[in-house]
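User: quick one - fold this with zinc ion bound?
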Amino acid sequence: MKFLDFHCDTAGECYLQKKPLWENDLHISLSRTACFSAYAQVFAIWIPDEKRGDAAFAYYHNVLENFRKEVQENADHIAFCKDGEELQKTLQSEKVAAVLGVEGGAVLGGSLEKLDRLYADGVRLMTLTWNGDNEIARGCFSETNGGLTPFGRQVVDKMQNMRMLIDVSHLNERGFYEVAQCLQRPFLASHSNAKIVDNPYAVARNLTDEQIRTLVRLYGCIGINLCADFLGNDGDTGFDAVLRQIAHFLDLGAEDCLAFGCDFDGCTVHETLNGIEHIPELYAYLLQHGISERQLQKIFFENGYAFLVANL
Ligand SMILES: [Zn+2]
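Assistant: Sure. Structure tokens for the protein plus zinc ion:
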């Protein structure tokens, strides 16, 4: 089977825990992705909310240098992809296609020029905020109801011009609609679920039906998050919870926008989903429970692939 995933924190965990990318006990190791006939992964470099200004950029740089070294050491199996053509060629050569992202616009430290540095480094996706506030906008756990700042509007404009993907996961609702309003091209929520779960984390992070309809209308993409808190409560966070999410998205007409953004190595997941090697089992379960093969091919790979080829 083919698989494309819009969000993992594996690059950061390899750096923090000093673990190799090929073989490790994280959610993702390259050696465990041989189960896929094609596999593309957005590797995000997460910027913690405690890191701001120069410290944020320095942290990004350290994680990136470490991850580059890991990719180089595994060059027979994985390659960075900066545009749709590289993505196509890498997958044809049966390597893992790695797209670089940054989770948290705090990395810019309020400087537009830093966006050029990121682009030159190969970063092709940026999540505008994490949970808190930064120079660009307000995160989903912000205590203010602010939207994009004037600097944030400049960032969104520049990202649009340079074809860097704009990711609204973690952004508060007001910021989401401001982004939708000022963009002329599709954007994505790389790892966000539908707001059908009632715990406080899910309420803050998941998308309303109206937000989902907006992404559908603008030909955006939405990655289903496997984080237990965002899928359900009291352990009801396994395959069935993913099925509930998919059924809800399909009811809203998201069949051509839906993908995965598993959040591997960035969250706690149910034991049945505890690693990328379980993805084929999830696929089989969904197929047995009413999602058609055609829909699954779209959700597990084709929608995300078409989105990246069209927008990178
Ligand atoms: Zn996240």
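One thing worth noting: DSSP finds twelve helices and nine strands in the chain.
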